[in-house]
């Protein structure tokens, strides 16, 4: 069993981007600038946005964090997005999800200028991704593709079972894995909450991607010997021994699944850091006006 080390791979990607940023600086060119919007005080969202902003600083990007109270009106939020759309210094815009219930997430995503939509959630970018055209690919599935590529994992002809069909993870993951590309060329089964024979399907999988949001949902009896296991889940479970009162676990029961797997991502330290590396890559492409992500 080999651990797919997201910290290590994301560091390699970030180091590479830092060199590219230094080159832009040396040539007197514009430095990539990411704007992040955070609404409310959700603990997990705060952590994710903080690490995105910190990563920008580490590699030499400029970043702006706009924070709003959870009571912000939809109009005020949209006005701010439009301001960022019109600001030529801003290359990438991300709105940390989820948003408070009174705000229409779809409207917010549709308001972001597609050329600055570094999360790749705008329908125009989703359409391009489905068509195999160069575009911004949603950061989590893009990060997973970069991880598979880094470890030179041969996915061709493999059966991938993706658990979860969200727009940000499961659905784009299924599209990317089924593409005629490397990594890719998998036969993909996309499963969800209405799938009847999930265990049976998982047992046929050469690659399992778990993106469900249920702690330790995937157990050893669901995984074939030698499978590649990608755990997207980030779940907080109570842990009195921690100062924070919780610890993070994935959607996979790591202790029992890892001995059966050929490769597995840990939580934390697997897909999470790769998501940030992918976001930074998308932001670089936005800044130089080139969308090259066609994995
Ligand atoms: P979501 O809640 O939007 O989607 C969950 C999906 O799981 C749904 O499509 C649902 O149909 C499916 N599902 C629920 N119960 C199921 C069951 N019993 N059997 C099969 N499918 C079932 O979640 P999401 O936004 O895709 O996130 C999933 C997990 O990944 C969460 O833990 C989230 O925190 C984590 N996440 C991690 C990263 C990262 O960077 N590592 C990024 C995004 C999300």
* CATH superfamily caption of the largest domain: NAD(P)-binding Rossmann-like Domain
Low-confidence stretches: none
List bound small molecules: nicotinamide-adenine-dinucleotide
State the helicity in percent bands.
25-40%
Number of strands: 11
Question: Tally the helices: what do you get?
Answer: 10
Number of domains: 2
- Regarding CATH, which class of the largest domain? Alpha Beta
Task: Note the topology.
Layout: E1 2-3, H1 6-26, E2 33-39, H2 43-59, E3 62-68, H3 74-86, E4 92-95, H4 105-111, H5 123-130, H6 139-150, E5 159-163, H7 170-178, E6 187-191, H8 198-203, E7 207-210, E8 228-231, E9 235-238, E10 246-249, H9 254-257, E11 263-264, H10 271-287
Parallel strand pairs: 1-11, 2-3, 2-4, 5-6, 5-7, 7-8, 8-11
Antiparallel strand pairs: 9-10
Helix pairs in contact: 1-10, 2-10, 6-7, 6-10
Nicotinamide-adenine-dinucleotide binds at residues 140, 163-166, 168-170, 191-193, 195, 198, 211-213, 232-235, 271-272, 275.
Please characterize this protein's 3D structure.
With 295 residues, this protein is an alpha/beta fold. It folds into 2 domains: 27-113, Leucine Dehydrogenase, chain A, domain 1 (Rossmann fold, 3-Layer(aba) Sandwich); 139-271, Rossmann fold. The chain has helices spanning 6-26, 43-59, 74-86, 105-111, 123-130, 139-150, 170-178, 198-203, 254-257, 271-287, and strands at residues 2-3, 33-39, 62-68, 92-95, 159-163, 187-191, 207-210, 228-231, 235-238, 246-249, 263-264. The strands form 3 sheets. The chain has a 6-stranded parallel β-sheet. A 3-stranded parallel β-sheet has the order 3-2-4, sandwiched between helices. A hairpin with a 7-residue loop joins strand 9 and strand 10 (246-249). The chain is globular. The protein starts with a strand and ends in an 8-residue tail after the last helix. The structure holds nicotinamide-adenine-dinucleotide (NAD). The site of nicotinamide-adenine-dinucleotide (NAD) has 23 residues, from helix 10.
């Amino acid at each position: 069993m080999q651990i797919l080390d997201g910290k290590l791979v994301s560091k390699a990607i970030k180091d590479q981007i830092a060199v590219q940023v230094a080159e832009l600086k040396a040539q007197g060119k514009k430095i990539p600038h990411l704007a992040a919007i955070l609404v409310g005080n959700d603990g997990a969202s705060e952590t994710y946005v903080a690490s995105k902003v910190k990563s920008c600083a580490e590699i030499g990007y400029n970043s702006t964090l706009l924070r709003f109270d959870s009571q912000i009106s939809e109009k005020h939020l949209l006005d701010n997005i439009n301001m960022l759309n019109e600001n030529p210094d801003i290359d990438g815009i991300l709105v940390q999800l989820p948003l408070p219930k009174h705000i229409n997430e779809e409207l917010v995503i549709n308001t972001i200028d597609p050329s600055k939509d570094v999360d790749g959630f705008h329908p125009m970018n989703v359409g391009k991704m489905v068509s195999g055209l160069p575009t911004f690919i949603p950061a989590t599935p893009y990060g997973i593709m970069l991880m598979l590529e880094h470890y030179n994992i041969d996915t061709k002809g493999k059966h991938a079972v993706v658990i979860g069909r969200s727009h940000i993870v499961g659905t784009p993951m299924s599209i990317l894995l089924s593409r005629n590309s490397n990594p890719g060329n998998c036969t993909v089964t996309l499963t969800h909450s209405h799938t009847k024979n999930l265990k049976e399907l998982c047992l046929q999988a050469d690659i399992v991607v778990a993106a469900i949001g249920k702690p330790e949902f995937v157990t050893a009896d669901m995984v074939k010997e030698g499978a590649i296991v990608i755990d997207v889940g980030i779940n907080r479970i109570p842990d009195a021994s921690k100062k924070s009162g919780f610890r993070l676990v994935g959607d996979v029961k790591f202790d029992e699944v890892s001995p059966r797997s050929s490769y597995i991502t840990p939580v934390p330290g697997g897909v999470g850091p790769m998501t940030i590396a992918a976001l930074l890559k998308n932001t670089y492409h936005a800044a130089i006006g080139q969308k090259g992500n066609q994995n």
